[in-house]
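Input record (one chain):
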Amino acid sequence: MAEDLGEKTEPATDRRRRQMREEGQIPRSTDLSGALALTGALAGLIALGPYMLNNWRLTMYEFLSGGLTTSLDGSNSAMHYMSVALWTAVRISGPFLIVTAVVGLLTTGWQVGPMLTAKPLQPRFPDSTHWPG
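The corresponding structure, as predicted from the sequence alone:
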């Protein structure tokens, strides 16, 4: 019955585990990674939330009160407003995004260990025997 389902009957050898690791095929829990990343994101939001809200409030006040009426070259353009808004968004949300990325990387690193391989990124082309026709 096990042969029908393709299940393994013997545990993997150390050599096979090493080969799989070199190829980037490592068992890890995506649910655990997701749960810890979500927990880290919530902790980051709790810690950085007041900072983010206060800066967004100040930025909105400047925009709506006309405090950002001219750019450095004296023009009053939509491009100036767009650049200020983009820079503000990066400045305010950047620390939260960095915290979330670091928590995600640490979670994966904790499960997998230190590993750097580009093998999973390489394209795998089928043999000519598998081509239809």
